[in-house]
Fold this protein.
Amino acid sequence: MLACVLMVGGCALGAKPAPATFDLAAPRSVPGSGSTSIQFAVTEPTVVGALNSERIVVRPAPAAITYLSGAQWSDRAPKLVQARLIDTFRNSGRVRSVGMPGGAVVNDIGLVTDLQDFHIDAQQGIAVVTIAVRIVSDQSGRVIASRTFTASTPISGSRAEDMVAALNASFDKVATDLVVWTLDRI
């Protein structure tokens, strides 16, 4: 009872409300046909420090970084992107086994990713997502193929929900293209 009173009292004394928490959605379907028996892992993307957070990045100018006030992701951006890329591969219905590195499965290849852009461009009013990917042989360590995928989506309003919806749309395009390209090469 005292804990409840203290918590309510803290709110009454001007404590900040918790930020709205948003999730990233994986595309539900992916075009293409055929399947692969190759087992692989998707690495957690490498990122610059500003993206290695739950906070939603806003770029008010090319060299400036801020964060969307009162909003956050449900996990660190690289972890969220990794999980949703894995979900997208699974949603394709074309893979035998895909997961995170370090599981009990012996992988044939690794998908090494770099999250280069995952932000709101305030000057242009767009949400930008860029992911570079390398398909790497787990046996030899050789890069089999590499490519960078990028998408931008106009933001339809000024609310956090509008910005997150645009980031989701950009991610949807990048994830779909990345999965189709990868599955065509393995």
About this structure: Strands lie at 20-22, 36-42, 55-59, 66-73, 95-99, 109-121, 126-137, 143-154. The CA atoms of residues 41 and 99 lie 5 Å apart.
